[in-house]
Amino acid sequence: MPFLRPAIVLVVASGLALTTSAQAADPEAGRKLARQCQTCHGLDGIATIPIAPHLAGESQIYLETQLKAFRSGRREHEIMSVVAKGLSDEEIANLAAWYASIRITATMPD
After folding, report:
1. pLDDT tens readout for residues 33-72
2. CB neighbours of residue 88 within 10 Å
3. pLDDT tens figures, 87-110
4. Which one, of 56, 39, 46, 69, lies nearest residue 96 by Cα?
5. By C-alpha distance, which of 100, 106, 104 is closest to 34?
6. Alpha helices in the chain (DSSP H)
7. Integer distance in angstroms from the first to the last C-alpha of the chain?
8. How far apart (Å, rounded) are the C-alpha atoms in residues 92 and 109?
9. How confident is the model at residue 6 (pLDDT cuts 50, 70, 90)?
10. Using CA atoms, how far apart are residues 37 and 19, in angstroms rounded to an integer?
11. Within 13 A of 1's CA, how many CA atoms are on the CB side?
């Protein structure tokens, strides 16, 4: 199955690129940037308004992907599209690293 090799290489290379981005991110810098997010998402990543999602503990890759989608216009929201337009790739990575670094625990009911 030699025809699969390029596809496998592409998938592995994509994964490495995402891992490198995640490793280079600075959660502490993201925490400082998160001040602009705290009105809706909370500095701790727990949403303070009903229409905003919780961000704490989400995957860094997921958060980066969503912020970049808002920035590019692939995903639209009246507030997030405006906020994300002003973020650089580095700022997005740092914000995602901050919210991903927050640990959430759950307690199952008896």
Report:
1. 999 999 999 989 999 999 999 999 999 999 999 999 999 9
2. 9
3. 999 999 999 999 999 999 999 999
4. 56
5. 100
6. 5-24, 27-33, 38-41, 60-72, 80-85, 89-101
7. 52
8. 36
9. low
10. 24
11. 4
